[in-house]
Each structure stands twice: as structure tokens, then as C-alpha cells.
Amino acid sequence: MAPPSSLKDVYIEELSDLVSANVQMQKIMPEMAQQASDQRLKDLLQKSVTGIGQHTETIRQLLQAQGGGREDCKGMEGLVEEARRHALNIQTRPDLRDIQIIAAYQRMSHYGVAGFGTAAAYANALGLQEDTAKLKQIVSDIYQADEYTTELALRTERAAAQSS
Q1: Kindly report the CA angle at 73 between 71 and 74, in degrees rounded to 5?
Q2: Which of 129, 123, 109 is nearest to 11 (CA)?
Q3: What is the rounded CA–CA span in Å between residue 93 and residue 37?
Q4: How far lies 116's CA from each of 2, 90, 131, 135, 148, in Å?
Q5: C-alpha distance from residue 145 to each of 25, 108, 110, 135, 150 (Å)
Q6: Which end of the chain is less crowded, N or C, counting CB atoms within 10 A of the terminal residue's CB?
Q7: In this structure, are residues 46 and 147 in contact, taking their beta carbons and an 8 Å threshold?
Q8: Whether CATH 3.90.550.10 fits 7-163
Q9: How many CB atoms lie within 10 A of CB 52?
Q10: Using CA atoms, how far apart are residues 117 and 17, in angstroms rounded to an integer?
């Protein structure tokens, strides 16, 4: 891909990266849900598959309106690999696995927040108010899931500390 020559080019690259990141995150969510032992965590991860899919469709529409583009998100690729290595492909107590799944989920979500927030800023600077609103809504959705995940993490961490 040629280097960007305008803010619009940078915006398109960011949207393309976000599509790739979301597709990768959505693919690992069912595996994470299957390995989670806490039912609330399982439910969140299963529900995330739908939410991530909706966000991906929104980004694809925004990207298509800007003329398309295709990126492979190496950042999310690394986060997915870390999730497999530290949370899924290990033998440990269920409560400890849940903590590691939550940490992996939050890392991926925070990566998304950074990307969506950046894309919203670019859209705003380009005068794309509808894009800006849609991207900010996605950031808000991710923050809500993150707050709930943090609550789950705190409960699970306390329980794991008491059983150690």
C-alpha cells in the first residue's frame, strides 16, 4: 500500500485496520466463551460476538463510502496470539483462567478503543459528522463492556485470592 498523502488516506487506513482487528477479535470470542467458567463472563463473551459483528458492519459501510481499502491488523493479531498463549492454551484453575481471559479481552477492547477514538477524531477533522457519531457510539459501547468486565475481574480476583 502506498504511503498516505492526506488525512483521508490515513482515515481509510485506520478504518481498514479496524475491520481486520474486529474480524480477528470476533473469531476468538467463541473460544474464549467456551473456556470461561463464570456464566456472566461466558454470556458477555458470547454477546460480544454479535456486538463486534455489528461494529464491523458499520466500519465496512464507512470504509466503502470512502472508497475502500484493505489492511491486515498485526496489532490485533499479536493480541489474539497472546490470548491463546496466556488464557486459552494453558492448564490452570478455572478462576485463574477466567482472570486471564478477562485480561486478554480487555487488552483487545482497549486496542479497539484507541483505534475507534482515533478514527472518530479523523472523521471529525474531515467534517464527516455522521461517521464521527457512529464511531463515538462504538467507543461508548466498548467502554460499557469494559466497565462490566472490570467488575467481573474484581469479583473473580477476590475469589481467587481467597482460595489461594
Answers
A1: 130
A2: 123
A3: 10
A4: 22, 31, 11, 6, 19
A5: 14, 12, 11, 16, 9
A6: C
A7: no
A8: no
A9: 25
A10: 13
Please tell me the chain's helix, strand, coil percentages from 3-state DSSP, rounded to the nearest 5: 85, 0, 15
Domain parsing of the chain, residue ranges = 7-163
d(CA 128, CA 122): 9
Contact (CB, 8 A) for 15 and 66: yes
pLDDT tens for the chain, residues 1 to 164:
678 899 999 999 999 999 999 999 999 999 999 999 999 999 999 999 999 999 999 999 999 999 887 889 999 999 999 999 999 998 999 999 999 999 999 999 999 999 999 999 999 999 999 999 999 999 999 999 888 888 888 887 887 788 76
